[in-house]
Amino acid sequence: MSKTKSGLSNPIQVHNYTSPVTVVYRNKPATQNHIDPQKTKIGHTMISDGGEDEEKWLTAGIAGLQQNAFYMHRALDSNNIKDALKYSAQMLSELRTSRLSPHKYYELYMRAFDELRKLEIFFKEESNRSCSIIELYELVQHAGNILPRLYLLCTVGSVYIRSKEAPAKDILKDLVEMCRGIQHPLRGLFLRSYLSQVSRDKLPDIGSEYEGDENTVMDAVEFVLQNFTEMNKLWVRMQHQGPVREKEKREKERNELRDLVGKNLHVLGQIEGIDLELYRDVVLPRVLEQVVNCKDDLAQYYLMDCIIQVFPDEYHLQTLETLLGACPQLQPSVDIKTVLSGLMERLSNYAASSTEVLPEFVQVEAFAKLNNAIGQVIEAQADMPVFGAVALYSSLLTFTLHVHPDRLDYVDQILGACVSKIAGKGKLEAKATKQIVALLSAPLEKYNDIDTALKLSNYPLVMEYLDDRTNKVMSNVIIQSIMKNKTHISTADKVGALFELIKGLIKDLDADNDDEMDEDDFKEEQNSVARLIQMLYNNDPEEMLKIICTVRKHILTGGPKRLPFTVPPLIYNALKLVRRVQSQDDNVSEEETASATPKKIFQILNQTIETLSMVPVPDLALRLYLECAEAANDCDLEPVAYEFFTQAYILYEEEISDSKAQVTALYLIIGTLQRMHTFGVENRDTLTHKATGYSAKLLKKPDQCRAVYACSHLFWVEDQDGVKDGERVLLCLKRALRIANAAQQMANVTKGSSGSVMLFIEILNKYLYFFEKGNAQITVASIQGLIELVTTEMQSDTSTSDPAADAFFASTIRYIQSQKDKGGATGEKFEAIKV
């Protein structure tokens, strides 16, 4: 005789494969559950060959099931137990079919399950009345066929356990052993799945009503383990059923039946009585034995993943050696990298959950065990692709950064192992390079400090194996990390190491093909490098100069496309140092032995700007020469400032030929020269004479005119005594007036009209400016003459209408009138001007 177990407190939920039920694992958030026995969803996901014959067989099976279910219900209503068992056995006989795929079989199974639930309710009611549950348990065993008999036995068995008329362990043992009578894989899996469902809430667990002297947690564990073992054997055996040509189809079906097997591990994980000792000594060894011995890659991968996801993190930590010891014994085709990555991810999250658990990791030497296991797995699976090995090391690095953030030697050791694995592999595939980027990004994200990454000797060695495009991506990641965390790289050695890391962005690599790169992306990359250069700083001028020299050495290898982006920020950073050194020298006498002197820095700047002539970008180089000249002016270094102006003039004469660029450059020269105060009379006259000469040689007359009257400001500087030459100002303005007349005459010849009077109005405003500033050479008569000239020209029949000129002239007249209205000396001065 046998004993049984079943009887669910809420039978409606027993079969609910299709409704989502949240199951909370111990030590694991409900949202991360891996196995949910209520989520197999076989009816929705199983593969079907869709044959018409199979549909007919399913239809016939459902019809036979429904017909017998009808007679079973009628027998139940009349309280006729024998007929009820007879028709229920005939109903369950439909499950004996071998013609249905798992998808179709599941549909049939679920209909039978619904009917068994009603039958179970009837058995519970009968046992509460006059019918003996023991007699009922024996009675169902008279069914003619073994499959219906066992389904009925499990159903009555659950009621038998609930009645407590026999020890639960005896009934459970009886049921799990009798189910061995079904060795057909598909039918056996569903039968044992049914057994697991009806018995799961009746296991003798701590705090359970079924626990007692005769029923212990060990009995529950033994039952689940035995059921798991048998189900796994059936599941593995499925691959050998049928012709070889349908092997792929069978593997798909097996893959979607896997939750029926994994459900047992979930049940084990829910048994509260399984403490660490029981798990370490019994549960884990028994499960791993079955996993290793089945020698099936699909089963091994899935079940290893189940073990990791189902049981508590602290159990994994304390049994790490046992769990990892099974990994090298798995089939070579098992995706062990995903399994180990999942394990390390869980342990990392466990470590991050509380600092109190970190000593446990040190105590069990978790890093050493994981590192050793990864090495053994890589060695055992010689054909493991590079990306798989790198993925393992990436997961180990993430684990290490969570558990041992202070152990940089561990981090460097992992990077070194990664280098050893990828060395000599040639060009890496895209998956591998993606994993390497993740590996290299992890320390940056953890420490938020590139300084830490620079201490890792193997960090740059790993970057060497990235292709050029990925190297650029990683370099951008490094720069963005520095910008985000506002990291200051404050020594020349660190700057050199950093620029060696990001060399993919600052110089042309051999295989680099910038022509294929989007121009906007290229500019964004180089702008990132420019921002990085601007962030480099050290309070010590000597060290800052070393940093500038280090950066210079690296960026000068950048090629013609990069130099226009990288040289200017270096120049401006060096100019900041010049002004800082100069401000210190005002208070402390300059040491002859100091290398960070303005003169020394200016020499470096001059040499650096010269490299732009090879690009060539003369307009940019000219701007930088003028910036340096102004900085030299602030340091009272006249020879240096003069040299920079000389270089700017040479560029203007020899390299800048475009008329628009000449106009822009000339305005820059005039504006900078006006602000210079360090020049003596001779040098200033030489530079000023050159500038006025350039102005008169511009291609277009209007450009000549405006440049010439702009030069008038070179002879009248308000902030400087001695630079107020009224005669030369007047000469410039008269010369501009002659050029404006010539421009108007040219317009008459070419267009038949005198053109705009805008140039005359602009010159009038210059006259007014110098008149107001006290230039005695600018008389009321000259201003009056200009006003009359503009008025006459505007009223001329040949004049071209220009609303802008009209508005400008009207505004000028209003200004003169407002100066008159001020009264006092200003009003008296302007009173003589008639408007």
TrEMBL record:
Superkingdom per UniProt: Eukaryota
The protein's name: Uncharacterized protein
Classification lineage: Eukaryota, Viridiplantae, Streptophyta, Embryophyta, Tracheophyta
